Amino acid sequence: MSNEFKPQTPNDIDKHITTKIPDKNERPNLHGAIQNYMVQGSCGPYNKNPPCMKNESFSKFYSKEFRRTDNGQTVKKRECVLDNKFIVLYNPELLLKFRCHINVEYTCQTSSIKYLFKYVYKGNDRVTTTLYNAGDSSKATQVVDEIRNYYDCRCISACEAV
User: Fold this and answer.
1) Positive or negative CA dihedral for 8, 14, 15, 17?
2) What's the rounded Cα separation, in Å, for the pair 79 and 42?
3) I need a labelling partner for 154 at 20 to 30 A (CA). Which of 24, 42, 128, 133 fits?
4) Does residue 137 share a domain with residue 73?
5) What is the C-alpha to C-alpha distance for residues 132 and 139, in angstroms, rounded to an integer?
6) What local confidence, expressed as pLDDT, does residue 50 receive?
7) Read out DSSP for 66-88?
8) CB 126 within 8 A of CB 153
9) Residue 42: is the preceding peptide bond cis (ω within 30°)?
10) pLDDT for 65
11) What does the pLDDT read at residue 66?
């Protein structure tokens, strides 16, 4: 990132990454997206056997203490009313654009690069396919070379192709 776009202060970061739950009346679409995609829970006192808990403690480190001031807003997940301690860090624009769980965090640790690229370069997607002629019955006596018609393929990105 060039310096003009790099976050310089905590307020710069807060413009792009947040756990705040907006007012349901002011931003109903964002409020609904957070409720559907960005809630870590309900667990702890609300549910004693969720997949995020191991030996009665949180394996995913939720709920968090308030990362920013508590704005008093809540979301309802199942029958639990949850505040922003249960919200995963998100970017409002990305959340509304893609309508899915996108965890966004700011870091300047080099170990994060290893974590990210472990998933980006975890290996190619592969497919095995066979080609055959299912149509013309007049060629039914034609010998088919099954070895030649078998392909072991992988999907690669543009940067891998280069």
Assistant:
1) positive
2) 9
3) 133
4) no
5) 12
6) 64
7) PSS---S--EEETTEEE-GGGBP
8) yes
9) yes
10) 64
11) 56
- Asked if 143 and 100 sit in the same domain, the reply is no
pLDDT along the chain (162 residues), means of 10: 81 86 94 90 60 62 61 83 85 93 78 65 63 63 69 68 70
Q: Please tell me whether residues 115 and 133 are part of one structural domain.
A: no
Residues 95 and 143 in one domain: no
Instruction: Specify burial of residue 67 (Cβ count, 10 A radius: 0-12, 13-18, 19+).
Output: middle
For residue 44, list its beta bridge partners. Answer: 47
81 & 152 share domain: no
d(CA 80, CA 45): 10
Q: Is residue 51 in some structural domain? A: yes
Number of domains in the chain: 2
pLDDT at 27: 95
CA–CA gap between residue 49 and residue 8 (Å, rounded): 41
Domain that holds residue 150: 125-161
